[in-house]
Specification:
Pfam families: GST_C_3 (PF14497), GST_N_3 (PF13417). By secondary structure, the chain is an alpha+beta fold. Helix content is about 40%, strand content about 15%. It folds into two domains: about 140 residues, Glutaredoxin (3-Layer(aba) Sandwich); about 100 residues, Glutathione S-transferase Yfyf (Class Pi), Chain A, domain 2 (Up-down Bundle), CATH 1.20.1050. The radius of gyration is 19 Å and the shape is globular.
């Protein structure tokens, strides 16, 4: 049996179960048909990968690590940064992006910062105050109203553009980073039916195969086959595997999971050989 650290080139995603930020990254990995390992951890200290020093300015998940054939090692944090890294590295054919010299590329960046600085913080605060054990009417009112305003801004944009996606005719990282918020709109007190263009965009996104991999339970998006404290071997080149596809060995000490089956590692290694 091989330890996964034997792989010279591999993508590993460490995230919390049910994390919308983790979901965004998984969807992108699916769409780009990249083989990857997904580890459900609760804290950064549980990451068993000793090839990286995980001490940094904060201890937030998700974290993506990537090892290139030339020996370069990359560690990326924050879902927006992870998305930009994956596109720059693995989307040379612009399946989910526009050329960097285009106006659409700039527009994608505009929306990324809109999500990071406006919608994301307000949406999360609205959800927090709505489920807080002690009702704080000011917090509920402030953040739900702000979130509604931001939803209306996106609604107007979609109505005016008449495009299937947030930026033009290509489903970009903006769409994938926006999707979990709309999927969890009820948690922030939002009725998506009040936003017809956004609702239409949402239903369109639901048809994408990468998003069909998820289930929606109690306002939380989850991969259909991801369980707690479980290492999921995602081999998303649609590599045909027998029932052992998700077979793993875990050591349940502080939630650590650090070994894969020999079959899974060999399958991943063979698929990595076809990567750009």
């Amino acid at each position: 049996m091989n330890d996964h650290t034997d792989l010279k080139e591999s993508i590993h995603l460490y995230t919390k179960k049910g994390s919308s930020n983790g979901v965004e990254t998984i969807m992108l990995l699916e769409e780009l048909e990249l083989p990857y390992y997904l580890c459900s951890v609760n804290h950064i200290e549980e990451i068993p990968d000793k090839r990286f020093d995980f001490a940094d300015i904060h201890n937030y998940l998700p974290i993506l690590t990537d090892f290139h054939p030339n020996g370069q090692r990359f560690r990326v944090q924050e879902s927006g940064a992870i998305a930009q890294y994956l596109i720059a590295r693995y989307d040379k054919g612009h399946k989910l992006s526009y050329p960097t010299s285009s106006s659409q590329h700039t527009e994608v960046n505009n929306w990324l910062f809109f999500l990071a600085s406006r919608l994301g913080p307000n949406h999360r605060e609205a959800a927090h105050f709505l489920k807080a054990p002690v009702e704080v009417s000011y917090g509920i009112s402030r953040f739900t109203n702000k979130t509604i305003q931001l939803y209306f801004a996106t609604e107007r944009h979609l109505q005016n553009s008449q495009m299937p996606y947030i930026v033009g005719n290509i489903c970009t990282i903006v769409d994938f980073l926006y999707f979990p918020y709309v999927a969890e709109a009820k948690s922030a007190g939002i009725d998506i039916d009040e936003f017809p263009a956004l609702n239409s965009w949402y239903k369109n996104m639901l048809q994408r195969p990468a998003i069909a991999e998820f289930t929606f339970t109690s306002h939380v998006l989850l991969p259909k086959d991801l369980s707690e404290n479980h290492m999921h071997v995602g081999l998303l080149g649609r590599l045909e595997l027998p029932s052992r596809r998700h077979s793993v060995v875990t050591e349940d000490v502080s939630g650590l999971c650090h070994m894969y089956t020999e079959y899974a590692v060999q399958a991943a290694s063979s698929n990595f050989g076809n990567m750009p």
